[in-house]
Amino acid sequence: MSQITSVLLDITGIQSYVFASNKLRENAGASLLVSEVYQSFLRQALKSVFPQHDFSWDAWQENPGQIDVESSPFEIGYIGGGNALLFFQEKDKAMAFVREWSSLLLVDSPGLTTAVASAEMDGEDLGNRDIFPKKRDALFESLQRNKGRFAPVTLIPQHGITGNCPHTPNSMEVWNKDEEKYLSCSAHAKLEASEASREKWEKDFSPVLGEKYRFTNDLGCLGQKKHEDSHIAIVHVDANDMGQRFEETRTLVEMRNLSLDTKRSLQKSFASLLGHIDERFEEIQDALGFEGNDRRRYPIDKGSGKYILPIRPVVLEGDDVTFVCDGKLGLYFAKILLEAWEKENSGLTACAGVSIIKTKYPFYRGYQLAEELCRNAKNKRKSEKQGGSWIDFHLAYGGISGSLAEIREKQYQVQQGNLLFRPYCLSRHDEKNFGDFVDRTRALRKQDFPNSKLKELREVLTLGGEAASAFLQEEKIRGRKFPEIADQEYHEKLFANSRTPYFDMLELMELYPKFELDKKKRKGE
To answer: Could you give the CA distance from residue 431 to residue 429 in angstroms, rounded to a whole number?
Structure first.
């Protein structure tokens, strides 16, 4: 094979671009624009550079084992994980493509920042198990250097004679007919793409949704009861060890197959979650407070007459998932998705962070917290050195100030120790097992503590040992028992080894569906 030019594309600051708004419509539209970077925008740029060629855009996916860059002026190496690797026969055409592609993004997805790296290589290197990893790693290193060299301006700067956009800190520039006001070009582009985003997800998951369900673009329509102080859950899931798996690939074909397998399993896992919601839809309605005849008040899309699902995907790219749902369902849905992910990937695991915040709280701050929770679960997994999928969660009763570590240091450290037992692992068989955590919460719930006693228990946990002893003695006289956990005597002192599991249980009673907490213990099913 002859010399070719490789071009590596990357999108930077995806999280801040997608989750900057408190409006689900903007977040969903931004997510679609990000996905279009390597779809329609890439195709438009290539058609401009190669107007006479009719490329088979999906050839690399349909036949990943075939490499045609020697017979074609351009070929997609792979797309995945926020990157796209492309190959060109001519360097001039590669540079022309980058210019055209960047120009399209400035116009159609303003505010989205990208980075590019390129290198020359021999076509035979793509299948050479010794040379290809070195060439690929050098290309990624070049990309990292380019990211740090300059920050391109992708938005029109503010100046003194313009008004401020009500959605962003940028200038008003474009009239938005739906909002009936001038917005920044970035906010306008995201809103314009929001409906297309919903249509895309509904098309992708049509076998599950059928004619019964729709996704919503409104955070207030995820099943929350309007008259209550409603909460949403922002769930961020990230696969474990994917970076290492990509580094272990030795050829372009191996990279393609891994990227495609990851994408397919992600789609199947989320489809499995949606199928589970369909199977248990009536129970989920009950869990949200729409019981019996009250189910007639469950949100229905006026245009189609379909039920609005209590979940909305925002990002499903590479090995990352972010979705939003009603606050009472976030932990449960995260668990179902992690189990589906492990099943689809023959034991490949992931970690999840579940941030439960008020519906009207700034979405981006909630997402940041979910990302921190996911990272904390990953760190715990590494420190425990036992693998598995892990979940961490946080229920915010008010605002969120500071990092996750600062919040937990200030609010959850008491005289007797740590109020939090989390994060939990799905597969371990000890006190850190998530299933056993749910079982213990069921056991505590079946003791029929009055709400006043549960509130008292929450308060007692923050006080000294004497208050705990008095509370335990009183409940023992009343015949109520605290669940035993492994070899530790938490049920005798509430705390052991300077930590307690009972605060987590009290929160799970608020955050987990009633139909799950009313079930029998898993071991007895």
So the answer is: 7
Q: Residue 186 to residues 17, 51, 189, 191, 407: CA-CA distances in angstroms?
A: 9, 29, 5, 9, 33
Q: Which two tokens stand for residue 98?
A: 């980058």
Residue 313 — pLDDT band, cuts 50, 70, 90? very high
CB distance 269 to 340 below 8 Å: yes
Tokens of 7: 């071009």
Q: Where are the beta strands (DSSP E) in 342-438?
A: 350-358, 390-395, 413-414, 417-418, 424-425
In this structure, what DSSP letter does residue 484 have? P
For 87-135, how does the pLDDT look when each residue is reduced to its tens digit (9 = 90+)? 999 999 999 999 999 999 988 888 888 899 999 999 889 999 999 999 9
**Residue-wise pLDDT tens digits, 437-451:** 999 999 888 888 888
Least confident of 73-82, 241-250, 290-299, 485-494: 485-494
Mean pLDDT of the chain: 89
Which tokens is 168 given? 């962003």
Q: 232-261 pLDDT, tens per residue?
A: 999 999 999 988 898 999 999 999 999 999
Q: Could you tell me if 307 and 300 are in contact, meaning their C-beta atoms sit under 8 angstroms apart?
A: yes
What token pair was written down for 240?
Answer: 């474990």
Whether residue 158 contacts residue 170, with contact meaning beta carbons closer than 8 Å, is answered with yes
On the CB side of 394, CA atoms within 13 Å amount to: 28
Backbone angles phi, psi at 141, to 5 degrees: -65, -40
Helices marked H in 77-216 — which ranges?
91-108, 131-149, 185-204, 206-209
What tokens does 369 get?
């917290």
| Enclosing H/E stretch for 231 | strand 231-239
CB 352 within 8 A of CB 275: no
Phi-psi group of 443: left, alpha or beta (phi > 0 → left; psi -120 to 50 → alpha; rest → beta): alpha
Q: Distances from the Cα of 125 to the Cαs of 67, 121, 122, in angstroms? A: 12, 7, 5
Distances (CA, A) of 415 to 341, 365, 418: 40, 30, 8
Mean pLDDT of 132-144: 94
Quote the CA–CA distance of 438 and 425 in Å, as a whole number. Answer: 12
pTM of model > 0.85: yes
Q: At residue 177, what are phi and psi to the nearest 5 degrees?
A: -70, -30
- Overall size of the chain counted in residues: 525
Answer whether the bond into residue 423 is a cis peptide, omega within 30°. Answer: yes
Task: Say which amino acid occupies 490.
Answer: Y
Q: Of 326, 290, 331, 295, which Cα lies nearest the Cα of 311?
A: 326
Measure the CA–CA gap between 354 and 423, rounded to whole angstroms: 11
- Interhelix angle 91-108/40-49, nearest 10 degrees: 130
User: How does residue 204 score in pLDDT terms, banded at 50, 70 and 90?
Assistant: very high
